[in-house]
């Protein structure tokens, strides 16, 4: 049986740990903890993985967290998946060189799916996490905004799911933008749909998780992992307890 992974998340903007509400840069909550200290706390709690997001780069391009990533890798045992501002293969290589275990590719995964498929072939599926962040429109279609969720790329979720499954992708991060930072619970119906369309992808649930019951619910619908953001930062559940529920026997 494949392990279910929990990914404590650190979103960084202007050097601070923050969370955005539904991807809106004008609705930011700042948290009084240094990003490196947050990573240390998660490592001390027993986390294996960290999800690190460069929000400045997601909007403007040019990954800026190389020094922080190197510090995290130097003083913790954490594996790190990280992204923001990935625009070219050189960006992937640079982030991997800083110590990333996986590079998250978001906007380019939507704008240039053929290029990202080539990256998967060159660097291997274990080195990349494809992020398809989605928002449902008035007609019920799942759209794929890009550039820090500020622009609608006009692409269909199902078509790209099929594309990346055929390209050999392994790791998929899917965020329902309407749930992100809201503590409304994960969109389990969306995740059932994603797994029905692309059953070979290891899906990470993201957006809306409130506590341990939601973590369990994402597991029960077939997700391979869950990204833990606002609820964890606000102490709404105990990370040690959550990790213990899925520790190897």
Automatic annotation (TrEMBL):
* InterPro entries named in the record: Aldolase_TIM, His_biosynth, HisA/PriA, HisA_bact_arch, Isoase_HisA-like, RibuloseP-bd_barrel
Its annotated pathway reads: Amino-acid biosynthesis; L-histidine biosynthesis; L-histidine from 5-phospho-alpha-D-ribose 1-diphosphate: step 4/9
Entry keyword Ribosomal protein: no
Q: Which GO terms describe its cellular component?
A: cytoplasm
Q: Which reaction does it catalyse?
A: 1-(5-phospho-beta-D-ribosyl)-5-[(5-phospho-beta-D-ribosylamino)methylideneamino]imidazole-4-carboxamide = 5-[(5-phospho-1-deoxy-D-ribulos-1-ylimino)methylamino]-1-(5-phospho-beta-D-ribosyl)imidazole-4-carboxamide
Any keyword Isomerase?
yes
Q: Where in the cell is it found?
A: Cytoplasm
What Enzyme Commission number(s) apply to this enzyme?
A: 5.3.1.16
Entry annotation: catalytic residues: 11 (proton acceptor), 133 (proton donor)
Pfam families (alphabetical): His_biosynth
Q: What terms describe the molecular function in GO for this protein?
A: 1-(5-phosphoribosyl)-5-[(5-phosphoribosylamino)methylideneamino]imidazole-4-carboxamide isomerase activity
Keyword annotations for this protein? Amino-acid biosynthesis, Cytoplasm, Histidine biosynthesis, Isomerase
Write down the NCBIfam families for this protein, in alphabetical order. Answer: 1-(5-phosphoribosyl)-5-[(5-phosphoribosylamino)methylideneamino]imidazole-4-carboxamide isomerase
Spell out the family assignment given in the record's similarity comment: Belongs to the HisA/HisF family.
Return the protein name: 1-(5-phosphoribosyl)-5-[(5-phosphoribosylamino)methylideneamino] imidazole-4-carboxamide isomerase
Q: What's the source species for this entry?
A: Marilutibacter penaei
Q: List the top taxonomic levels of the source.
A: Bacteria, Pseudomonadati, Pseudomonadota, Gammaproteobacteria, Lysobacterales
Name of the gene encoding the protein in the UniProt record: hisA
């Amino acid at each position: 049986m494949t392990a279910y992974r929990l990914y404590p998340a650190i979103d960084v903007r202007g050097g601070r740990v923050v969370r955005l509400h539904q991807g809106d840069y004008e609705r930011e909550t700042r948290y009084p903890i240094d990003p490196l200290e947050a990573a240390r706390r998660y490592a001390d709690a027993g986390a294996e993985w960290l999800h690190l997001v460069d929000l400045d780069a997601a909007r403007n391009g040019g990954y800026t967290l190389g020094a922080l990533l190197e510090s995290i890798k130097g003083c913790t045992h954490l594996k790190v998946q990280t992204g923001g501002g990935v625009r070219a293969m050189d960006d992937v290589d640079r982030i991997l060189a800083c110590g990333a275990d996986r590079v998250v590719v978001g906007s380019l995964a939507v704008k240039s799916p053929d290029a990202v498929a080539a990256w998967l072939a060159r660097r291997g599926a274990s080195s990349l996490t494809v992020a398809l962040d989605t928002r449902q429109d008035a007609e019920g279609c799942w759209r794929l905004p890009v550039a820090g969720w500020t622009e609608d790329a006009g692409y269909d979720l199902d078509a790209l799911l099929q594309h990346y499954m055929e390209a050999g992708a392994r790791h998929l991060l899917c965020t329902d933008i309407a749930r992100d930072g809201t503590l409304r619970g994960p969109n389990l119906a969306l995740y059932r749909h994603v797994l029905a369309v692309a059953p070979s992808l290891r899906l990470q649930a993201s957006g809306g998780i409130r506590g341990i019951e939601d973590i369990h619910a994402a597991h029960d619908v077939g997700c391979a992992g869950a990204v833990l953001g606002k609820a964890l930062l606000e102490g709404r559940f105990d990370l040690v307890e959550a990790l213990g529920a899925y520790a190897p026997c």
